[in-house]
Amino acid sequence: MKDENKNQADNDNFDDLDIDNTQGDGLKSSSNNEKVVISKTKILLMKKILGNIKTNNEKLLDLLAVFINPEDESRLAVSQMADENFSDQNDDESGKIIEGVFDGEHMIGPDGKQYSIPANYASKSKLVEGDILKLTITGNGTFIYKQIGPIERIRVVGRLEKVSDGSFYIVADGNKWKVLGASITYFKASPGDEVVILIPKTGESNWAAVENVVKNV
């Protein structure tokens, strides 16, 4: 009798879910609201849904892999990535923020130090000599750039020239500007092509940003 009373007490204190092995549907509860019964059908359905979620996640990762450049992924992991789309998400209090001026290739900080900028980012963003940039150096050493003060600029049309050391220039009206090799590669330009460049509206500049190319047919 003592054992029976003990078992009854244990049962009264059991609050976990009871599984109904019948094929009923829906959740059931006892009148004292202390037990919830889930049918076996519901358990199998939840298992199937979880399995589908796992499968869909794997498919989504496979799809994303098609759009991710392994070179960019590697650079993000071990070196530096500059993209305005990431900047707002990564500006945190633990990061070091430096503002500087773009000189055509690098950012020059207020301390006179030179900070390297990925050529692909400078070309894609069409940075012009004199633009004000903000550099965030995160806790793990990642460099994140954002253009915060574009200088007023004008368009000039000139001809592309390549010199013996492999660098490129745009020549127009007796003036000459250097352009990033990454821009020339992106537009698949060749010496002699007509190139639309961006330069500061006022003052002299040594560098220009390539805006477009008219192929010399």
Describe this structure in words.
This protein is an alpha+beta fold and 217 residues long. The chain has helices at 2-12, 40-67, 70-78, 84-90, 119-124, 181-187, and strands at residues 18-20, 27-29, 36-39, 96-102, 106-108, 114-116, 132-137, 143-149, 153-162, 168-172, 175-179, 194-200, 209-214. The chain has three domains: 2-65, no CATH class; 80-149, OB fold (Dihydrolipoamide Acetyltransferase, E2P) (Beta Barrel); 153-214, Nucleic acid-binding proteins (OB fold (Dihydrolipoamide Acetyltransferase, E2P)), CATH 2.40.50.
Query: How many DSSP-defined strands?
Result: 13
Low-confidence stretches: 6-31, 73-93
Which topology of the largest domain does CATH recognise?
A: OB fold (Dihydrolipoamide Acetyltransferase, E2P)
Strand content: 25-35%
Mean pLDDT: 77
Going by helix content, strand content and strand pairing, the class is: alpha+beta
What about the largest sheet? Answer: 5 strands, antiparallel
Number of helices: 6
Using the 3D structure, state the CATH architecture of the largest domain.
Answer: Beta Barrel
End-to-end span in angstroms?
103 Å
Q: What is the global morphology?
A: elongated
Using only C-alpha atoms, the radius of gyration works out to: 32 Å
User: Order of SSEs, N→C?
Assistant: HEEEHHHEEEHEEEEEHEE
- Strand line-up of the largest beta sheet: 6-5-4-7-8
* CATH uppermost class of the largest domain: Mainly Beta
Helix content: 25-40%
